[in-house]
# Entry
Amino acid sequence: MQIGGPGGMNLTGAASTAGASALFGATAPAPSGAKAEFLKRAQMTAAEQMRAQILDAMGLTEDDLKAMDPDKRAAAEAKIRDAIRTKVEEAEKEKKGVLFDIKA
# Structure
């Protein structure tokens, strides 16, 4: 068993990998592929994740939205809002009566 100390040092006096990187200014390589996508989604709020899922289902990205002309973008944003509203309403219906209806 090792116990960490200041600067990433363990009891044996050897610097941990993370501690050594921090001490010497090295940075870990940026993750790529599925790992990068997972980390990106993990840092999103629930609303951001929902929006990203809807965009994926529509075959769009945020960059695609930005590139659209204003009328098409407004229509796409309206579809996204409607889809979010529907998902939230469905989630609320599922919660009612599960154990207690605290919304009464």
